[in-house]
UniProtKB/TrEMBL annotation:
GO terms for cellular component: cytosol; membrane. It is found in: Cytoplasm. Keywords: Cytoplasm. Residues 1-52 are annotated as: Disordered. It holds the Pfam family Rho_GDI. The keyword Manganese does not apply. PANTHER family: RHO GDP-DISSOCIATION INHIBITOR, RHO GDP-DISSOCIATION INHIBITOR 1. Transmembrane segments: none annotated. Residues 1-15, 43-52 have a biased composition (Basic and acidic residues). It comes from Hibiscus syriacus (Rose of Sharon). The keyword Cytoplasm applies. This is Rho GDP-dissociation inhibitor 1. It comes from the Eukaryota. Belongs to the Rho GDI family.
C-alpha cells in the first residue's frame, strides 16, 4: 500500500520495526525450517493453568505475557486477529485521515483510494487479538501497474497477546511517486501473516495516483 519515487521499478527493503525483506522466494533454509517437528502445543489458557501453584513460574509467565485478560483467552490454539480500521495518514491532506472500509471477503469493489503524487503518507491500522498470542505478525504488500510488478515489501509488525483493547500500529512513512509516468491506476495485494504462515487478512484492491487527493 506504498510506493517510492526512486524505487518504483525495484523491490524495497522493509525498514523500521525490524529487518524488512523484499524477496518472496523460498530458500533452502526456509524448506529446512518447514520440516522441523515441534512438541505438543497447548492453548494459552492451558499454559497459564500449568504449574499455577509454582510461584516463580507464575511470576515468570506474567512477566512474559503481560496483563493478559483471562476473559479474552479462548480454548483454541489459533490466535484470532480482527482488523478494525485501515487508514491513510498524511500531514499534507486538508481533510482528516482516509479511513478505508474492509469488506468481509477482503476485496473492495472499484477504486479503494487515491494518493496525491509526491505526497508523504503512512498506513495506520488497528486490530484486536483474541484466543492466543499472535507471534511474528508481519505485513506484505505487492503493487502492479499495467500487469508489471513495480513494488513489493515485507515489514515486521510484532508479537501481541490477547486483550480486549485494540492495538494501533503505523507503518513507516512512504512517498508517492510523481510525474506523468507515475500517475494512473494500480492494483495491489496486502497480507497480514504470522509466524505460522496463517493469513489473518488479505486485501486485493485498486488505487490511483493523481495530481491531487481524490
Amino acid at each position: 500500500m506504498g510506493l517510492d519515487d526512486d524505487k518504483k521499478n525495484k523491490e524495497k527493503d522493509g525498514p523500521q520495526e525490524s529487518d524488512g525483506e523484499s524477496s518472496f522466494y523460498t530458500t533452502d533454509q526456509d524448506d529446512d525450517e518447514s520440516t522441523l517437528h515441534l512438541g505438543p502445543q497447548r492453548t494459552l489458557k492451558e499454559q497459564l493453568e500449568k504449574d499455577k501453584d509454582d510461584e516463580s513460574l507464575r511470576k515468570w509467565k506474567e512477566q512474559i505475557l503481560g496483563g493478559v485478560d483471562i476473559n479474552n483467552i479462548g480454548e483454541t490454539l489459533d490466535p484470532e486477529v480482527k482488523f478494525l480500521i485501515v487508514a491513510i495518514v498524511s500531514p499534507e491532506r486538508p481533510e482528516p485521515d482516509i479511513v478505508l472500509s474492509i469488506p468481509e471477503d477482503g476485496n473492495p469493489q472499484g477504486l479503494w483510494f487515491t494518493l496525491k503524487e509526491g505526497s508523504h503518507y503512512r498506513l495506520k491500522f488497528s486490530f484486536q487479538v483474541g484466543n492466543n498470542i499472535v507471534s511474528g505478525l508481519r505485513y506484505t504488500n505487492t503493487v502492479w501497474k499495467s500487469g508489471l510488478r513495480v513494488f513489493s515489501t515485507k515489514d515486521m509488525i510484532g508479537t501481541f497477546s490477547p486483550q480486549p483493547d485494540p492495538y494501533t500500529h503505523e507503518m513507516p512513512e512512504e512517498t508517492a511517486p510523481s510525474g506523468f509516468m507515475a500517475r494512473g491506476s494500480y492494483t495491489a495485494k496486502s497480507k497480514f501473516i504470522d509466524d505460522d504462515n496463517k493469513c489473518h487478512l488479505e486485501i486485493n484492491y485498486t488505487f490511483d495516483i493523481r495530481k491531487d487527493w481524490g
